[in-house]
Amino acid sequence: MRIIMLVDMDYFFAACEELRKPEIKGKPVIVGADPKGGNGRGVVSTCNYVARRYGIRSGMPISMAYRLKKDAVFLPVDDKYYEKISNEIMRILRGFAGRFEQVSIDEAFMDVSEKVDNFDKAVDYAREVKEAIMKGTGLKCSIGISENKLLAKMACEAAKPDGIKLLKREDVQKFIEPMPVDRLYGVGKKTAQKLKEMGYETVGELSKAGLMELVSKFGVYGKEIYDYARGIDESEVVENNEIKSIGRERTFDADTDNIEEMKSMLETMANEIKEEIDTKGLQFKTVTIKIRKPDFTEFMKSRSLSHYSNSDKEMLDEAFKLLADNTGTKEKVRKIGLRVSGLASYRGQRKLAEYM
Ligand SMILES: [Mg+2]
Fold first, then answer.
1. Where in the sequence of the chain do the CATH 3.30.70.270 domains occur?
2. Residues 2-12: what's their mean pLDDT?
3. Candidate list 18, 107, 147, 318, residue with the active-site label
4. Residue 349: its pLDDT value, please?
5. What is the pLDDT of residues 208-220, one digit of tens each?
6. Which of 59, 105, 168, 329 is least enclosed by beta carbons within 10 angstroms?
C-alpha cells in the first residue's frame, strides 16, 4: 500500500505578508485586487483566518470583501515574493519525499512509502515536515495522509488549519459519503452541477451511480468520477514541474483592431494547446493572454480558475474575458498570445477501452 501526503500551506499569500509585516498579524489580511473604496474589480486571492471570521473567502469579489470589512488590511498580490518563499518550501519538502509533485505555489504531493513503514509512523513524519517548514520559513501548513492522492487531498482539507489528518481505508466511507460531490478533488463546479442535476448531491449518493451512466455522460472522465466516489485513485505522484506553462503566439498579417479576428486566432491557439496538454496529461489553472501593440509595447493579463481544468472551452472563455477587459482602448494589435500555467498532472489518462 502506498503512503501519500498532501502538504498545503495555510492561507499562503496572506501568511507571507504577515511574515514581512508582523504588525498586521492578528488583523484581517486580504491579498488580492485593489478594493478602490468598494468599486474595485477583481477578486480576493487569499485571506487569513481573521478575515474569514467576517465571511471573507478567496475567490470572492474584492468589492464584496470591502463591504464585509472596510478596515481590513488590503494588499496587492506580490507573486515574486511568494514564489521565493515557495521555492524554499518545496526545497525542504523534496528532502522528505520519495516521489514529489508540486501541485501549485503552496501545495505538493509526496509519496513517502519508501520513507516510512506504516501510517502511524507517517503521522510522526508529517510532524517533522511541519516543524522543518516552520523552522525554515516561519510558516504553518496542513498535511493530509492517506493511501492515494484523492484521499490525501481531502484529508488535508479537513486538517486545516495547522493540522495533520490521517485517513485510513476503513474510515474512508464514513468520511467522504456525507460530503457534497464538489468536495471530491478533481470534480469541478461544472461537473458538480451536472451531477446534482442527475440527482447526486453527496458522494454517498454518487457512489450508487452506475459506471455506464457516468461514462455516457462524462466520457472517460466518468470512470474517474466513479472511482473517486469510492475513494479510489490510482494516479501516481509525478514530478511534472519541469513544464511550467504551455502557450502559443501569433502575429497578425496586418495590425488589427477587429475583435472577431483576435477571437478566432485565440480559438486556433486554444485548440493547439488543448491537444498538447492532453498529450502530456496535464491540466491548468491559469490562463494568460499577451498582446503586443504595433509599437511593440506588450501587456499580459491572467485569470485563474478556482479549479484545475483541461477544457479548451474554459480556456477560451477566460481568454475572451481577458480580451474584453483589454480592448476598450481601440488600439491596434500586432501579435497575440495565449498561455496556460499552474499545471498539474491530469488524473484521467487511462483509456476508456480499459473499462469496456
Ligand atoms: Mg494553501
1. 4-12+80-173
2. 97
3. 107
4. 38
5. 999 999 999 988 7
6. 329
Q: Pinpoint the residues of the chain covered by CATH 3.40.1170.60.
A: 13-78
Tell me if residue 38 falls in helix, strand or coil.
helix
Tell me, in angstroms, the distance from the centre of ligand 1 to residue 141's CA: 8
Ligand 1 geometric centre to CA of 185 (Å): 14
Residues 68, 92 contacting (CB under 8 angstroms): no
Whole-angstrom CA distances from 29 to 52, 71, 135, 225 are 9, 10, 23, 36
In CATH terms, the fold of domain 177-237 is: DNA polymerase; domain 1 (1.10.150)
Q: How many CB atoms lie within 10 A of CB 247?
A: 17
User: For the domain 4-12+80-173, what is the CATH code?
Assistant: 3.30.70.270
Q: Are 286 and 305 in contact (CB under 8 A)?
A: yes
CA of 110 relative to ligand 1 center, distance in Å: 15
CATH 3.40.50.10490 fits domain 245-345: no
Helix (H, G, I), strand (E, B) or coil at 52: helix
SS3 299: strand
Distance 16 CA to ligand 1 centre (A): 11
pTM over 0.85? The answer is: no
The confidence score (pLDDT) of residue 90 equals 92
The architecture that CATH gives domain 13-78 is: 3-Layer(aba) Sandwich (3.40)
Q: Which of 106, 120, 89 is nearest to 14 (CA)?
A: 106
In this prediction, what percent of the chain has a pLDDT beyond 70?
Answer: 94
Phi and psi of 277, rounded to 5°?
A: -65, -35
CA 12 / ligand 1 centre spacing (Å)? 5
Residue 206 pLDDT: 97
Known active-site residue 276: no
Span(s) in the chain for CATH 1.10.150.20: 177-237
Task: Round to whole Å and give the CA distance between 85 and 80.
Answer: 9
